[in-house]
Amino acid sequence: MPKVVIDGIETEVRNGATVMEAANGLGIYIPHFCYHKQLSIAANCRMCLVQVEKAPKPLPACATPVADGMKVMTRSDYARTAQDGVMEFLLINHPLDCPICDQGGECQLQDLAVGYGKSASRFTEEKRVVLNKNLGPLISTDMTRCIHCTRCVRYGQELAGVMELGMIGRGEHAEIISFVGKTVDSELSGNMIDLCPVGALTSKPFRYTARTWELSRRKSVSPHDSLGSNLVVQVKQNRVMRVLPLENDELNQCWLSDRDRFSYEGLNSEERLTKPMIKEDGHWREVDWQVALEHVARGLSETRFKYDPNEIGALASPHSTLEEMALLAKLVRAMGGDNVDHRLRQSDFSADGKRAGAPWLGMKLAELGQLDRVLLVGSFLRKDHPLLASRLRQMAKLKTKLNVLHCADDELLMPVANKLITRPGDLVAALAQVVKAVAEVKHKAAPGSAARPGRSPRASHRETAPRCSSATSPRNTLKARSCSVLPRTSPACSTASSDSWARRRTASAAISRAACPWKAA
């Protein structure tokens, strides 16, 4: 492992580490714009220029690998002169509109201009003006402020899986644009707002509503998927104004899906009930809380003595807190009942009593990178778990082979080694064959019905055959040290027992036609 001296402090780093990484490990800050720890290195802002002993010119810290015995000065007069010069160039065309910019108060360029900018500009010519782009309903643009760090471009290519922004032109004519007539529609597009170090990309719903120093922060957890992304809710006068990701490498890293980021708008909708209402003579009327609670208490008392306790039940919203759910369960059981549930959108309860605890991956999300094979069963991953899809996308680009078993084709925006698209009624049989193949590879007995021969799954369309034939057998597909089966969320891909599927053949055919409209007649 090479040793490097940075500002007189010696440290040892891994092979291939950059000067920027070594400095961050020592707690030494090097100014930068284009560098981000989750993105590839571009080195186009040049703000991180540092002095390296025996080097003929300043070198970018983000793109310079550490060599054994290297001596780096980040605060020498030589390095500061280079950094000040870069800042002066960046401010040549940047507009002086900080008082009306939504990024004001949390702008990286604003902060660094104080430490590395000059008190007056030597540039007297007219500044360039770049027309704004329509990127859709979530991202607002002021492209004259853009400093061409290309963070947004690299994020779309590397993490979102689709290149929706790109750079055209050269020199001062360079600008970031979307494809002609296209908007940014990725399910992770809001992260471009966080990545932008200036006010070129800002949140359209949040635009001109509050200043960052006016907002109070509350830590929270996303309720929209089983990932539990950490987030920060920013509030002004008891009104949620904005939601941002809270960095957690174990879960969501520093990203957030769009539905978690922008769903707060539903809290402020005019259609939400803000006062209790009672229905009388077929009409709803608003009442105060005391009247409403007395009405509920009276109704519960009548229900308790009017009906059998086994006929009394309660349904709780899954968005309720654990304390609220516990109190509801306590109330129902005090009335003699035991029917309490929160699964408002679930229709198949055949697995009740057969599972031990809650289903999960069997491993931490941070450990997914250790897998060399992944089997994805019946999940529209980009819609169900966007951030998990982003993790798998990075893994698939390196060494991990992704295998898909589904009843509907879906574009995952990542390399897929093997894919089998089958009818919903044949999904269980296909999965049983996979389990049987894995058991043979590991020289173990296949569990239960998977060991019994059954019908082979039929592809939903003849065009799926080439995609499914990339693996000559499930055994070859799943020769791996590790295998993870992700939980499905699509009701069309229910994994009920074989007997249940036989009894519900008619319903299965109807679901198949709905989920796979391209299926051959």
Secondary structure elements and pairings:
Elements: E1 3-6, E2 9-12, H1 19-26, E3 49-52, E4 59-60, E5 70-73, H2 77-90, H3 108-116, E6 139-141, H4 151-160, E7 165-168, E8 175-178, H5 191-195, E9 201-203, E10 216-221, E11 230-236, E12 239-245, H6 258-262, E13 277-280, E14 283-286, H7 289-306, E15 313-315, H8 322-334, E16 339-341, E17 373-377, H9 381-384, H10 386-398, E18 401-406, E19 418-421, H11 427-441, H12 465-468, H13 474-477, H14 498-503, H15 505-515
Parallel strand pairs: 1-5, 15-16, 17-18, 18-19
Antiparallel strand pairs: 1-2, 3-4, 3-5, 6-9, 7-8, 10-11, 11-12, 13-14
Explain what the structure shows:
- The chain is globular.
- It has helices spanning 19-26, 77-90, 108-116, 151-160, 191-195, 258-262, 289-306, 322-334, 381-384, 386-398, 427-441, 465-468, 474-477, 498-503, 505-515; strands at residues 3-6, 9-12, 49-52, 59-60, 70-73, 139-141, 165-168, 175-178, 201-203, 216-221, 230-236, 239-245, 277-280, 283-286, 313-315, 339-341, 373-377, 401-406, 418-421.
- A hairpin with a 2-residue loop joins β1 and β2.
- It is built from 15 helices and 19 strands.
- Strands 2-1-5-3-4 form a five-stranded mixed β-sheet, sandwiched between helices. A three-stranded antiparallel β-sheet has the order 10-11-12.
- Residues 460-521 have low confidence and may be disordered.
- The chain is an alpha/beta fold and 521 residues long.
